Amino acid sequence: MKRSAALGAVALAAFSLTPGTATAQPTGPEPGPSVVGGTRAAQGEFPFMVRLSMGCGGALYSPTLVLTAAHCVNGSGANTSITATAGVVDLQSSSATKVKSTRVLQAPGYNGTGKDWALIKLAQPINQPTLKIAETTAYNKGDFTVAGWGAATEGGSQQRYLLKATVPFVDDATCKSAYSELVAGEEICAGKMSTGGVDTCQGDSGGPMFRKDDAGAWIQVGIVSWGEGCARPGKPGVYTEVSTFAQNIKTAAAQLGG
Q1: 113 located within any domain
Q2: 208 touches 157 (CB < 8 A)
Q3: N or C, which end of the chain is more exposed by having fewer CB within 10 Å?
Q4: Which residues form the Peptidase S1 domain (predicted)?
């Protein structure tokens, strides 16, 4: 199930995180819930985080581009219907920056399986730090951070406050035993296989999975894509493997002028 969630269908509730879920689009996986098993993020802790009005997350790739999941958008082209909220952990804060979209570029060839990335061009720049993307598999290991405003429990409501959690890497062979449909070359898995309890959830789709690089800076290795339920034992979260698509993303960003 994709981990996106339409805000029209779910009211913002008390904070809690459920990794990797989001509302489904007609041609893609459903966005997942919020981060499950998480804690509240501090103001300014992850300044690159973006909340999208269709019920997904995202990260600032550049001041005018948001990297999110393909299943969160309906194709490519002009689009002024999306509002990006940034600069706050509290979505109801009066200091939030809100910017409309102008265009969307969905991953070429996306058909609901794999290739789950998209870029959203903004009408004005957002003055916040951006999140660099991994261009090699060097950081596709260890423990990752996930963050989002999605549900904190499976089937729960979207959250008002940004939640964060730590999820460990799950190798392809182990993840394939949980999901036969895994596209190993395009997806990366993370979660607590034996116990569950920590994950992304509905409303977290499109948000980043990231870790520190060798220089101590945040680097994005995944995009919240899908999973079976939220935080279930034996069912890790599945994320778009950013390094696989780094060059495609760069090319798309250049096309959008971002």
Answers
A1: yes
A2: no
A3: C
A4: 35-254
- The β-bridge relationship of strands 12-13 and 158-159 is parallel
Question: Do 145 and 228 fall within a single domain?
Answer: yes
Please give the average per-residue pLDDT across 195-204, as a whole number. Answer: 88
Establish if 62 belongs to a structural domain. yes
Residue 231 has pLDDT above 60, yes or no: yes
Which residues face 237 on adjacent strands? 190
- Per-residue model confidence (pLDDT) at position 4: 61
Tell me whether residue 175 is in a domain. Answer: yes
Taking CA atoms, 93 is separated from 68, 82, 87, in Å, by 23, 19, 10
pLDDT at 14 over 80: no
Structural domain containing residue 61: 49-130+246-256
Classify residue 80 by burial, with Cβ atoms within 10 Å: 0-12, 13-18, 19+. exposed
